[in-house]
Amino acid sequence: MLEIRDLAVAYGGLRALSGVSLSVAPGQFVTVVGPNGAGKTTLFKTICGIVPQAGGTVTWDGASLLARPASARAHLGIAHVPEGRQVFATLTVRENLEMGAYPPAGRAAWARTIDRIHTLFPILAERAGQMAGTLSGGEQQMLAIGRGLASAPRLLMLDEPSMGLAPAVTEAIFERIAQIHKEDGLAILLVEQRVAEALELSDHGYVLETGRIVLEGPYQTLLADDRVRRSYLGLGDE
Amino acid sequence: MLNAVAAGLIIGCLYGLMCIGLGLIFGIMKIVNFAQGELLMLGMYVSVYLVGGFAAIGIFGPIVAPFVAAVLAGPVLFGGGMLLHRFLLSRVSGLTTAARLDQGAFGQLIVTLGISLILQNGGLIVFGSTPQSVLTPLSARAFILGPFPGDALLFLNQARVFACVVAILVAVALWLVMERTRLGKALRAAADNPVAATYMGIDVDRAYRIAFGLGAGITAIAGGLMATYLSFTPFVGLDYVIIMYSGVVLGGMGSILGAFWGGLTVGFVQQVSALVLPPQLQNAAIFVVFLLIVGLRPQGLFGRSAERA
Amino acid sequence: MRVGGANRLRRDAIALAIVTVGYAGFAATVHNSYYQLMLTLVPIWAVLGLSWNMMSGMSGLVSFGHASFFGIGAYVVTLALVYWHLTPWLGIPLGMVAGAVAAVLIGLPTFRLRGHYFALSMLAYPLALLYVMEYLGFQEVPLPMHRDHPALFLQFVDPLPTTLVALGVFVLAMIAGMLVENTRFGLALLAIRQNELAAEAAGLDTWKWKMRALIGSGAIAAAAGGLYACVLLVVTPDSVFGVIVSAQALVVTLFGGVATVWGPVIGAAILIPLAETLNAKLGNIVPGIQGVVYGVAIIAIMLASPEGLFWTIRDRFFRAAPAAPMPAPGSLRIAPGTGTLLAVSGLSKSFGGLRAVQDVSFSVQAGEILGIIGPNGAGKTTLFNLLNGVLAADTGSAKLDGQELRGRKVHAISRLGVGRTFQVVRSFPRLPVLDNVIVGAYGAGTDDDAAAATAAAALEAVGLADRARLPAGQLTNKELRLMELARALAGSPRLLLLDETLAGLGRDECDAVLDVLRRLRAQGMTIVIIEHTMHAMLRLADRFVVLDHGRVLAEGPPRAVIEDKAVIEAYLGSKFLARQNA
User: Fold this and answer.
1) ipTM attached to this prediction
2) Hey, what's the torsion of the CAs at B103, B104, B109, B112, to 10 degrees?
């Protein structure tokens, strides 16, 4: 479904990504882990067209995304839940969800998706008329995910959903993500710093370091890998 | 006293509408548009020519025609504003320059100054320098209310009263569009967080273009309405652009209601200060009030504090 | 003098001499009185542009209201002549004093505002003054004629001497501008433009520098206005306080290029003749056409050259000037202390209902590296902001070597010896790395040579000495992080607060920075570092303080902390230890 080959991205002369290849099949749960600033967010922004690519290909259903402007990509069924949540603070919770349903597919499925979102995150129904900026961090993260789901996507991209959240909330969010994956059969591409939790959820994982994929494989393989254990789980040497 | 307060409220509503136009542009795109006064001026002239046109084909009659013309100036300048944004402003503002030093603010200032010069002087060439106005029989008629306690009579210029009513209707209509429609919500989303809006599939450039068009159109309607009671030349914009900025800054940038209240405040201060100040100092009073308020409440009189880190 | 400032100054002085002599020679050959007037106006508007550039171009605080100063200068000269028969030779300096005073009165309230609010508020002053002048009955004040003493009253029959006087004022304004540009004054303003907070944290009293710039700018603009009155022989509120005057200052500078004295010169030299010629040639045929053409011209050039002609031309046709020689590195003053260097007790801060930092107490021993860890949003950066004065704490205290930090301003805390880096590095990309670092040394209050030497030493300490002459824009992420570290070091701090200095670094880069930090510790530096990268922190820090929800959750040696139940729960995750032991 999503196929990335040899992707390179340069930021003001600096290479942010080089030779990155990655793919997500329908219904697959893929995780990208790596240290802060390794290029994970850049990868997402490139897929969404916010950052121009310097080389390589990004294809969706076999067609190149290169020529598609950023705003058109959401209409293809790619939903992006950005780093730091980025909810529309001055819009109400309900309006945020409506904006999520901006693409035609989202509008067509609105009645069904809004029910589903409210089932997953009942708090969003309770807070429907409240300004999104007044929600707590965890609630904002739920709103951001709900907003992503509202577009009735085929791929849900999540950029560090655990950022700044208390462990209990993070756990709840991860549970919901797993639930969405299992019950809705939605393909998920997750970027996380919480390596262990993230890898455990997924079918397949990639390790991104200084803009390169240094390791990939099923999650069991990655968790057993010495480098991962040392670098990201804080285990091993010393 | 009573008359000044009433005049202040009526003029204030028109200023409020005018400020909403600028508030849309300033609030949504953060563009400092020096040409906003010229959009007001164009609204006035479009209205003049439409009234002439209506008279020639004999529709609407002398009382209704100026108000229809004023409202129609909106769509005309909406189109004009979209074109301006498409070909000039989008190249020096918005997402394209966000990464540039100073967010490209310097380039954008020069471009709107240039547009302002072109429109003023182009206006001089096309419309001439003779002061014009839209004549309506209402301009010379007044509603007389009263007597109030103390035997005061309230005289209300009918043209201004109707202009004020139309202004409020247009403002309410715009508010409904922004609050209730998908387009309005998309515009607010684009203003709130352009990058996230893009993730939602909103074409932010297009949203900005529409917002600029709307801002131009709304200010033009205000211009058309004001044309019914004052005479103007192509340089009239200079007098009002400052008033508009005062109103928008007072109201707190980025809020439609705030811009309206800000404009209302400015109009009110201007008219009521006439009671105590010589006419030359009326406008100076606006700036003093403006500086006071901005100094005391930097987020604007009606703006919400965005202090949370 | 800035590093390389003397060379730049010499080069610019030669260019200025050539331009001035050439201009004067050209003016002597012109006899058409209309063109002579134009030749007089070019330097006057250039002076106004130079004034605007000194304030807004250099510091990035856009003023839409320079007509205030211009108009005050014009009216002071005119009214002094009318009422006191005071010669403009004294009237102009008097006007400059008035302009400087006005700058103080305007700056005091207006510097509290930021961004668009500052810019638009500046617009209100000249307009208020305009209406006041009209009210006072100064609608149109002609200058009294004193043709019997042309030299004394600047009323020459032949326009050439007037042009030369204007040129003289222009030369003085250029010299002032060049001095600002090439001394720490200019560097301080550029630092404010790039990031006011970082400049303040580097120890610069930004308010004072901004005020100085506005005072200088106000005086120069007043000189331009005074001269303008002498040339036109009549002042009206519109012609000197009008929006057009403020706009003119912006336009000539932005058109020519900001943050260089040559910008306003280029802008005025092209635009003023263009506007005047259009006015004369086309304006009579079709009134208004000159404005249209002028508008089209400035838009076209702005689209082609958004940063101004000077920078575009320089980037395209000239190689960057040879970099200044590297100053000999001095020694970094690292004073190893003993005992408790920083004592924080009961520090709290709330934003509305959000308690970002609650009752935080801990201490830092001299010579140690203390790691502050905790989930995002735990209040780590807010804590730093409280410590170095960016935010005011609600309650509690923080004492550096017994001196209370709470209640002091950012630059004052920096001068006490608290250096700080930020999560997001912002550099001035056109300036060499060395200049970026020198800003930090200025903050410590050293003289120019010492500052340069300290900066060089700081660059050496972080291993960037060979990059010192490159523009900061060409550095890699790691080098930028090190540059920021060097800037903090250049202030000769006793305590370094590092906010996610390792963020975005690969493992090898991370190791390189860790080595630098360990070397600093070996020399006696005390460091508090916020960091997420646990593997790095475990190898670097002597002790941990764990924050969660604004509270101190645990404190102690790294090993003990990572085995603490509460820490595992809140930050490390329940599986951390299991993996650790697996």
Assistant:
1) 0.89
2) -110
